[in-house]
Design goal:
Layout (H helix, E strand, L loop, with lengths): L1 H14 L5 H10 L6 H11 L2 E4 L5 E4 L2 H4 L3 H11 E7 L2 E6 L4 H11 L4 E6 L3 E6 L5 H12 L1
Antiparallel strand pairs: 1-2, 3-4, 4-6, 5-6
Length: about 150
């Protein structure tokens, strides 16, 4: 939910000139997210959004450097500290993580753009990765292991 909301925030600030947290909260509500001002404030801080002057002269939120591209080293660090095991099962890769960090690890994997990954589903300590084709499972597992070294 948080990841979806934050992706939506990045899309909204790209599509609209959003000047205030209240405007952003209203747009999120229109998109189907039930948020509070405190949640919006936290998301702005976590996404490292910044205010810039738009062409119309208004202030508006814009992605900060970290929102646009977090370094691969940061993602690798999340993977190294969070992953306990990686196991292939048909066209699914099952990753066990430290309790409570599966969503962060899944987000890092999504941002690593590993060939063959269709998507990730994360729970508390387990991630299921759907691999596009069974023949790609070994290369996905190898790519994940490479990030751990």
């Amino acid at each position: 939910m948080k990841r979806d909301r934050q992706r939506t925030i990045l899309r909204l600030i790209t599509d609209y000139e959003i000047e205030t947290q209240e405007e952003l909260a209203t747009k999120l509500t229109e998109e189907g997210f039930d948020t509070t001002q405190a949640t919006v404030s936290r998301d702005i801080r976590e996404l490292r959004l910044r205010k810039i002057t738009s062409e119309s002269g208004r202030q508006k939120y814009a992605p900060g450097e970290a929102s646009l591209s977090t370094s691969a080293a940061s993602y690798r660090q999340i993977l190294r500290t969070g992953i306990s095991s990686v196991e292939a099962a048909e066209n699914i890769v099952v990753i066990k993580t430290v309790s409570g960090v599966a969503m962060a690890v899944a987000a890092a994997l999504d941002h690593m753009h590993i060939d063959g990954i269709a998507g990730c589903i994360a729970g508390d300590d387990t991630i299921f990765i759907a691999v596009r084709k069974k023949v790609l499972v070994d290369s996905v597992v190898d790519a994940i292991h490479m990030t751990l070294n």
